[in-house]
Design goal:
alpha/beta
């Protein structure tokens, strides 16, 4: 897991934030947000190219890569108010899917165990399976909910005879028990897939899908409010997975399976910001940016801003929870009895939130040691209990 930098390009970090090496804990001690690239498109069913997504998301910005992005509306600077680091890309050979996914899950879990919220830049949506699994092993098996923006449900039983692909990760997560089906919220579905049998399977697991017809009829804000109540019921953290094809291809053409009639870019940015401001995010991925099909880099610009909106919402939430004296990372000297937010480090006697590390005196354990990859056919077992 030694840092390799960019698998398909130069070693440059997200907008100039400090580099980290997951194999060297001292290089990222105290980090609140750990960005990692997942340059994998071996799970695509149509057009490949998302392996180049992490580099595009990191690089595409007209402003200097100076590790600072003051948010005009929220009056926070997420890259300064939070301790953000970039671990580079996970080495993920597209010809060896299971090895790639194991490596990614291990990287995500290591970031969580070190007290950071992982933000993963994809890659095709296959990576959501190890991303959310790694977070669930930290937050608690079955204690993680999912908010999933996508044109497609990604709940297929198999893809070209394989259990792993960008059309199957959400089914794998539910089958494994990492994420409960009745705490799985999907927003933006439309088009002509999946088929009735898969829809029946989804209904049987209690999944809630807000198709575009419902989003248009009710309004996105109303759908989000309902989804938030479900996502926070009996769960300790929320994983946010954003497939850029949830946006209409007129505004996000650079993706492998475009489906007309989606959200606007503005709607997605506002929704991501609100999620990060209001919910206990424990992990985020942004996937399916395929630069070979982009035009004037508009999809990469959008994905870069999705990441920034998520980080800005987290920074805003922590600032308001900690009070005006809070420094970088939202830490305001939390003392005994205080509760740390997602990814925050709590003081003595404190209770750590999702992705957080409890301080001395909490009695928290160290959690499982080696990351265990479930055996095919995918995770019939229950995962480890919640750490600590």
């Amino acid at each position: 897991m030694t840092r390799i930098g960019g698998m398909y390009g130069p070693d440059a970090t997200f907008l100039g934030v400090p580099a980290a090496d997951l194999a060297d804990p001292a290089s990222w001690a105290g980090t609140d947000i750990m960005i990692s690239g997942a340059p994998f498109d071996g799970g695509t069913s149509h057009r490949p190219g998302a392996r180049f997504g992490p580099q595009a998301i990191r690089f595409t910005d007209y402003l200097p890569h100076d590790g600072s992005r003051p948010h005009l509306a929220l009056r926070v600077d997420p890259l300064k108010d939070l301790r953000v680091a970039d671990a580079g890309d996970v080495e993920m050979p597209s010809g060896d899917t299971e090895v790639s996914l194991r490596r990614l899950e291990a990287a995500v879990h290591r970031a969580c165990h070190g007290g950071a919220i992982p933000v993963i830049l994809g890659g095709d949506h296959t990576v959501a399976f190890p991303d959310a699994t790694g977070v669930a092993r930290h937050v608690g098996w079955g204690r993680l909910s999912m908010i999933h923006f996508d044109a497609h449900a990604d709940t297929g039983n198999s893809q070209f005879g394989s259990l792993y692909g960008h059309g199957t990760p959400m089914r794998r997560l539910i089958e494994s028990g990492a994420v409960r089906g009745d705490r799985f919220l999907q927003i933006g579905l439309r088009g002509y897939w999946p088929e009735p049998e898969t829809l029946d399977w989804m209904a049987g697991r209690g999944m809630r899908s807000y198709e575009m017809a419902e989003v248009v009829a009710r309004g996105l804000d109303d759908c989000l409010t309902e989804a938030f109540a479900i996502a926070t019921d009996e769960c300790d953290g929320v994983f946010l997975s954003v497939d850029v094809d949830v946006v209409d291809p007129g505004m996000a053409p650079g993706t492998g399976t475009p489906e007309p009639g989606g959200l606007t870019g503005r709607q997605l940015l506002d929704a991501v910001r609100r999620i990060a401001m209001e919910l206990p995010l424990a992990g985020v991925d942004v996937v399916e940016v395929a630069p070979p099909y982009d035009h004037a880099e508009i999809t990469a610009f959008l994905a870069n801003r999705v990441v920034l909106e998520a980080l800005s919402g987290i920074a805003w939430q922590r600032r308001n929870a900690a009070g005006p004296a809070a420094g970088p990372g939202g830490a305001a000297g939390a003392g005994a009895g205080a509760e740390a937010g997602p990814g925050e480090e709590a003081g003595a006697g404190a209770k750590a939130g999702p992705g957080g590390a409890a301080g001395a005196g909490t009695g928290a354990g160290t959690g499982p040691g080696a990351v265990r990859w479930p055996e095919a056919p995918l995770l019939e077992g229950r995962g480890p209990a919640k750490e600590g």
